Amino acid sequence: GNSATNGGAVFTRGDMTIIHGTLSNNTATSGPAIFNLGVLTSGNSIFDGACTAAGLTTSLGGNLESLGTTCGIGGATSDRINVSSGELALLPLADNGGPTLTHALSASSLAIDDAVSSNCGWPFDQRGIPRPLDGNSDGISACDKGAFEFDSIFADGFELGDTTAWSSAMP
């Protein structure tokens, strides 16, 4: 995460929209990690950390807000607020491929395949991985919440899917 005096992740006095964003483990020495004095609109995003929502918040749905986070995002029925760290299941900020560091989702994250489909207009995640993928292995491709699209096939670094056909193709 980032750190700053105010708004370690975001400090805004104007309008800002976050779609498929992950804001986690950001700190501020004086004030919250997310400091919103303007209009914050969000959809399919993950908010994990202290927040001040003195401005207006508008939810497009599909947001996850951690326990104690006070962004005021939970306005849509598809938003989940007061989600525990275990349910968020975010991994530490790391090089998971792509041009920037990301918080990967672990296989137990509530964010997997749970985004609002009408907000899933972004064809790639932050790393450039196509979305949607079938992250929960139910046979249906659906977008994940946040900046990272989980791929269950190589979740543990190895093929987890059905490899029966491989044996006939590769003796």
Entry summary:
The chain has helices at residues 85-88, 164-169; strands at 3-4, 10-12, 15-19, 22-24, 27-28, 34-36, 39-43, 46-48, 51-53, 56-61, 64-66, 80-83, 90-94, 102-105. With 171 residues, the chain is mainly beta.
What does this structure look like?
This protein has 171 residues and is mainly beta. The chain has helices spanning 85-88, 164-169; strands spanning 3-4, 10-12, 15-19, 22-24, 27-28, 34-36, 39-43, 46-48, 51-53, 56-61, 64-66, 80-83, 90-94, 102-105. The longest helix has 6 residues, at 164-169. Mean pLDDT is 81; it is low at 156-161.
Which key terms come to mind for this protein?
single chain, 171 residues, mainly beta, 4-stranded parallel β-sheet, 3-stranded parallel β-sheet, 30% strand
**N→C terminal distance:** 47 Å
Question: Secondary-structure element order, as H and E?
Answer: EEEEEEEEEEEEHEEH
- Class from secondary-structure proportions: mainly beta
Average pLDDT for all residues: 81
Number of strands: 14
| Number of helices in the DSSP assignment | 2
* Amount of helix: under 10%
Strand fraction equals 25-35%
Shape: globular
Q: Return residue spans where pLDDT drops below 50 for at least 5 consecutive residues.
A: 156-161
Radius of gyration: 17 Å
The biggest beta sheet is recorded as: 4 strands, parallel
> How would you write the strand order of the largest sheet?
4-8-11-12
Topology (SSEs and partners):
Elements: E1 3-4, E2 10-12, E3 15-19, E4 22-24, E5 27-28, E6 34-36, E7 39-43, E8 46-48, E9 51-53, E10 56-61, E11 64-66, E12 80-83, H1 85-88, E13 90-94, E14 102-105, H2 164-169
Parallel strand pairs: 1-5, 2-6, 3-7, 4-8, 6-9, 7-10, 8-11, 11-12
Antiparallel strand pairs: 13-14
